[in-house]
């Protein structure tokens, strides 16, 4: 029977409708990526002239590169010096201040994060941390969003493995909702909402896919999409960039294994992953929550794009998920992993 479910973070409603579901085999995709000739791929070695001038690189042993960061050629936001907000009645506008960067994860055109050596994924994570830290120092930005689009249905326009970072001058609504839920819980209980959630999920076990020393992978109780996953640190931390080197290496490993589980079970499915971390501190206004470091807990969402949003979802903001997260977790636990 269908169920209506609401999770604690950020308090959204979903409909779990197993009668509409299919076997994991029915979701399998052979190739989620677009193909382009490598000679014309702007992210491949030798084609560096095809991208805007690079911002950062991890050098290779022979003068080549292991990871590159470049400005997005078609940025969502631009380098305006100021917001210059203006209102007219109920309408408000401002300059599209921000930054939009592309992290080219590897020189290897054909293999994504789950197929790369652990050492390479660690370099990618180190690059994420470096760029998020740099962008957070720009006084114009209130939030820095890391995400990855994989496959055409996941929004990727190029198949060469890459991630993206966008810095915005406002705290986005979805982030506001998560912060609000965490703050409300902390003010009521004096405890971190995600730490409480982890304790309950580990005790129940039915939605846990992996529990390592430093990270837990679970299918959220209120999963919006089939096989949606959360990667959550077992140690309390509000800010992704505050991880130690050992924690960053462990995160690289769990990210690699999690994406490998999806590939092993479902094939090369399109997906997005999105980092939910704390906003840039803004003393005296915005999210100047004194207990932010105690009450908020960063996490990474992995969102396979196996179903299509339609009129009901757009009209209500509610999602229909045909695969109960308990079933998704069970299948993914048995899906194997690399390395």
Overview of this protein structure:
The protein is of the alpha+beta class and 339 residues long. It has a single domain, classed as HIT family, subunit A, CATH 3.30.428. It contains 7 helices and 15 strands. β10 (208-211) and β11 (215-218) form a beta hairpin. α1 (118-136) crosses α4.
Average residue pLDDT: 90
What is the number of E strands?
A: 15
Kindly report the CATH topology. Answer: HIT family, subunit A
Low-confidence stretches: none
Structural class: alpha+beta
What is the CATH class name?
Alpha Beta
Rg over CA atoms: 20 Å
For the biggest sheet, the summary is: 10 strands, antiparallel
Index terms:
alpha+beta; single chain; 339 residues; HIT family, subunit A; 7 helices; three-stranded mixed sheet; ten-stranded antiparallel sheet
Write the layout of secondary structure elements.
Layout: E1 3-6, E2 13-16, E3 56-59, E4 65-71, E5 86-88, E6 91-93, E7 99-104, H1 118-136, E8 143-150, E9 162-168, H2 173-189, H3 193-204, E10 208-211, E11 215-218, E12 229-233, H4 245-266, E13 271-276, H5 292-295, E14 299-304, H6 311-316, E15 319-321, H7 325-333
Parallel strand pairs: 2-15
Antiparallel strand pairs: 1-2, 3-4, 4-7, 5-6, 7-9, 8-9, 8-13, 10-11, 11-12, 12-14, 13-14
Helix pairs in contact: 1-4
